[in-house]
């Protein structure tokens, strides 16, 4: 039996009707109305912004790439680290200048930051130019909230702690016609002691597989070449549906959809990773040979303090099982340096795990306390200077390993997807494993598969030439 609530179709239809009301209101005002969407954080936020844009397009807005002169500015925020929050507050503050030049400009702040009470209070108190604030669970009601602001003129703060639900039928405006994001679930049940996500995005909510498969099929038929399935923990997909299906089953069903595209997914939690998942990855020819499997710490004691619910030994066994099935798998991960109470010896355990696994790349972070999480209150005796030194040590070693791994590509030829142009004017492309390649070639090749011979490498990228 399904335990996750869904938004009735008639409620989404009402939101679309409100979009039409807003369109009529805007039509009575001179000039074409423009909207600017600024997205922070993870790919899930990107996917959310695509739905917010879908609503805005239905309202009659055109999109611009700058807040200057925009009639509607929306900041879709991230609360995962303090630096991201401060960056948002800085950018919100700067909007006082654009609103002074354009007094009718509407400024909305949504996403994970907006769901936190202390953030909403600060926005209300210190940023009077912000008109609308709402959390991720109320994304589906964005038209209704915006209409309330337009009709009554008062600021709207919709930040109550409401249970999350699954909403289907929201229009989507995608930013890319090569790579597509597909959310398969929302929220998180894990409650890692350092993480704010379960508090701001709510509990896990899986979409029905038929809706996911229909969205992927639509992308494949439109010619998308790289499709990423998204969730805070994709490995727990389906547990709330009561249908006896899991993420491995979903991968197999997506793999059956016709089309020449790659399937990626993120993020995977090690506690729910399984041999069944690895078997599905190995046998499904469209599933990219790469996995992002965050380990966070090489110390079992620290992992327990983080409430990660696996040990160092369990994690290493998962890596062994994965590589036994997919020897060429590209493995990436997240690691936190300086979790409260971490000793120097425990940090060295993280270093030894990195040496043993030899990741292709790591996303490394110094612990950032999040207000409202258990880790915020833990004693943290290690000096910041030591944490910083450890962080640099880890970063240097991982850069060396990444450089060594990339050197192994030189002289070989890989099928890659040309996906854009870099700052240097060269084409950018990705291997099936997600490794970046810089190529010489015509921009007409963007969106096509090409064979690339790798001629050089660096810590961060590969360099090649198109062959064949």
Please give a structural write-up:
It contains 13 helices and 19 strands. It is an alpha/beta fold and 468 residues long. The protein folds into four domains: 9-158, Cobalamin-binding domain (Rossmann fold, 3-Layer(aba) Sandwich); 176-288, Transcription Regulator spoIIAA (2-Layer Sandwich), CATH 3.30.750; 291-408, Transcription Regulator spoIIAA, CATH 3.30.750.200; 413-467, Nucleic acid-binding proteins (OB fold (Dihydrolipoamide Acetyltransferase, E2P), Beta Barrel). β16 and β17 form a beta hairpin. The model has no long low-confidence stretch (mean pLDDT 95).
What descriptive keywords fit this protein?
alpha/beta, Transcription Regulator spoIIAA, six-stranded parallel beta sheet, five-stranded mixed beta barrel, 13 helices
Which fold name is given in CATH as the topology of the largest domain? Rossmann fold
CA(first)-CA(last) distance: 53 Å
Secondary-structure content class: alpha/beta
Instruction: Provide the β-strand percentage band.
Output: 15-25%
What's a quick, concise take on this entry?
The chain has 468 residues and is an alpha/beta fold. Helix content is 37%, strand content 20%. The chain has four domains: 9-158, 3-Layer(aba) Sandwich (Rossmann fold), CATH 3.40.50.280; 176-288, 2-Layer Sandwich (Transcription Regulator spoIIAA), CATH 3.30.750.210; 291-408, Transcription Regulator spoIIAA, CATH 3.30.750.200; 413-467, Beta Barrel (OB fold (Dihydrolipoamide Acetyltransferase, E2P)), CATH 2.40.50.140.
């Amino acid at each position: 039996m399904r335990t996750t609530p869904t938004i009735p179709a008639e409620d989404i239809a009402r939101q679309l009707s409100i979009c039409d009301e807003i369109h009529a209101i805007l039509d009575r005002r001179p000039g074409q109305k423009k909207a600017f969407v600024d997205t922070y954080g993870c790919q899930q936020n990107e996917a959310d912004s695509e739905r917010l844009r879908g609503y805005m397009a239905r309202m009659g807005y055109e999109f611009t790439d700058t807040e200057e002169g925009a009639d509607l500015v929306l900041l879709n925020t991230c609360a995962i680290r303090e630096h991201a929050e401060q960056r948002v507050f800085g950018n919100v503050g700067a909007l006082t200048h654009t609103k002074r030049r354009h007094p009718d400009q509407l400024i909305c702040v949504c996403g994970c930051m907006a769901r936190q009470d202390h953030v909403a209070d600060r926005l209300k108190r210190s940023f009077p130019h912000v008109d609308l604030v709402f959390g991720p669970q109320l994304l589906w009601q964005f038209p209704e909230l915006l209409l309330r602001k337009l009709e009554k003129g008062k600021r709207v703060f919709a930040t109550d702690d409401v249970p999350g639900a699954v909403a289907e039928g929201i229009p989507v405006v995608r930013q890319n016609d090569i790579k597509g994001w597909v959310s398969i679930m929302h929220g998180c049940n894990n409650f890692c002691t350092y993480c704010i996500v379960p508090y701001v995005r709510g509990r896990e909510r899986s979409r029905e597989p038929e809706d996911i498969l229909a969205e992927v099929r639509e992308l494949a038929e439109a010619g998308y070449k790289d499709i990423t399935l998204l969730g805070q923990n994709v490995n727990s997909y389906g547990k709330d549906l009561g249908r006896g299906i899991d993420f491995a089953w979903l991968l197999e069903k997506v793999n059956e959809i016709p089309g020449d595209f790659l399937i990626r997914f993120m993020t995977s939690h090690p506690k729910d990773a399984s041999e069944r998942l690895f078997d599905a990855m190995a046998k499904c020819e469209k599933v990219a040979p790469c996995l992002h499997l965050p380990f966070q710490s090489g110390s079992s004691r620290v992992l327990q303090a983080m409430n990660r619910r696996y040990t160092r030994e369990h994690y290493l066994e998962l890596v062994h099982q994965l590589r036994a099935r997919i020897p060429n798998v590209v493995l990436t991960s997240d690691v936190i340096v300086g979790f409260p109470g971490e000793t120097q010896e425990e940090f060295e355990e993280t270093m030894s795990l990195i040496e043993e696994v030899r990741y292709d790349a790591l996303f490394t972070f110094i612990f950032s306390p999040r207000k409202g999480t258990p880790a915020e209150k833990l004693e943290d005796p290690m000096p910041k200077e030591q944490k910083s030194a450890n962080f640099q040590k880890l970063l240097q070693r991982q850069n060396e390993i990444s450089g060594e791994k990339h050197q192994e590509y030189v002289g070989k030829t890989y099928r890659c997807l040309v996906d854009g142009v870099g700052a240097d004017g060269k084409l950018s492309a990705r291997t099936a494993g997600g490794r970046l390649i810089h190529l010489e070639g015509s921009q007409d090749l963007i969106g096509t598969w090409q064979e690339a011979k790798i001629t050089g490498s660096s810590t961060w990228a590969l360099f090649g030439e198109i062959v064949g």
